[in-house]
Target: Flagellar basal-body/hook protein C-terminal domain-containing protein
Amino acid sequence: MRQPGDRITLQVTGPDGASRNVILVASAFNTDYKAASLSDDATAFVQTVRITPGTPPSLDEIRKALAGLSKEATDRGYPVSAVPNLAAGPDGTPASAVTVSGATGWKVVGGSLTVTVPQSPADTSAYPEIAVFVDSDGNRLFTDSFDNGSQRTGFAQRLAVNPSIKADTAALTALGGGATGADGTRANFIYGALTGTDRTFSSSSGIGGLSAPYGTTVVKFAQDIIAAQGSAAAQAQTIDSGQGVALSAAQSRFAEGAAVSIDEEMSNLIALQQAYTANARVLTAARDMLDTLLRM
Model:
């Protein structure tokens, strides 16, 4: 654990035999040992452990993190008996030799370590690992850090090809251990990582149906995104086409109702004029009759 976001996952069992995971996430800034906010394991106890970037956590920091885990869990309402009771030691050992063990009925039955192998975007000393992509915000490695917020948030927008690779593509075929020459080992490793290694993707992406989280390769996930976007575009086009037909029909009916026929209107005007003339003659006759009656 040398980079923020590196993590140790410990599989532990309690006095009742139930299994839980304890995840320690490296952080360069968090000195309060608060629980990290994100984990693919909804039932795990997740806690940050302070490191200096490039240096593994000290025994003292691991102990503080384990103590912080217990306090954080009990503060959130977990009974003491349900919180993993773990200890780190022995004293006087280097960080690389720290042993984490259980107490009061708790046992550590397994563990795994997730680390960022290149130490910087320009680091090509690891073999065959190499940083092909970087976080364009500061041209930094993606380490899944939680410092200053989750690095995952908005990373799809910031993902960029490593400028060091673009400047010197020979690194993709370079031999390890400082040997001269070239081969396809590193390129094949990258290809395998993209096409043959399953990754976990958030269900919030809308990909994967009922699987939450969704596990597949990077290439397959990209293909699923393209297929989903294509399907959504086709569906939107179908809806738009149907709405266009309905709009055209409505506009046609409105035009029919609002249209003015010159012939029809002239015919109506002539009829009105004739009716007016007839009425005028009737009124004239009535006036003449009244005049005659008044003169008698």
